Amino acid sequence: MKKLSFILAVSLFSLASCKNKDDKGLVGKWKPVEMNIAGMTAEDKKEFLSSAVIEFTKDGKFSATRTGTRHTGTYEFNEKDNSLSTRDAGEESVQKYTVSWEGDQLVMTNEDGNVKLKRQ
């Protein structure tokens, strides 16, 4: 469950078909500020919110760090339908998210819940 929650927030965060790797909307470092993930304990949520950082680079890669654990992979963002797909390095499965904005916060949503992130 911890890995699934981490991947959701990270992969959040985690892109479907459009090859626009220069999207300035996602590129940068992000810190989760709020999350609602099914089955996540209050303790895990607190730890995640206090330690996680996700970075999307313009070359289509991402890295996510949480309490000393680092995940890396690739992503694709489709601006037309605000879909985000991520794939952890060495993994076959793709995580798919819907991306939206609430003010200056990036919101990543999938079937497990959502995470709000603020640019650092």
Question: Which labels suit this protein?
Answer:
8 strands, alpha+beta, 120 residues, Lipocalin
Give structural notes.
This protein has 120 residues and is of the alpha+beta class. The protein has a single domain, classed as Lipocalin, CATH 2.40.128. Helix content is 17%, strand content 48%. The protein contains two helices and eight strands, in the order αβαβββββββ. An eight-stranded antiparallel β-barrel has the order 1-2-3-4-5-6-7-8. A hairpin with a 6-residue loop joins strand 5 and strand 6. It is globular. It starts with a helix and ends with a strand. Residues 12-24 have low confidence and may be disordered.
- Order of strands in the sheet with the most strands? 1-2-3-4-5-6-7-8
Distance N to C terminus: 27 Å
CATH architecture descriptor text: Beta Barrel
Helix and strand pattern: HEHEEEEEEE
Tally of separate helices = 2
Low-pLDDT segments: 12-24
Named CATH topology: Lipocalin
Oligomeric state as shown = single chain
| Estimated radius of gyration | 13 Å
The backbone outline, from C-alpha atoms, is globular
**CATH level-1 class:** Mainly Beta
Relative helix content = 10-25%
* Count of all domains: 1
Class from secondary-structure proportions: alpha+beta
**Biggest sheet details:** 8 strands, antiparallel, barrel
Using DSSP, what is the number of strands? 8
Please state roughly what percent of the residues sit in beta strands, choosing from under 5%, 5-15%, 15-25%, 25-35%, 35-45% or over 45%: over 45%
Chain-averaged pLDDT: 85
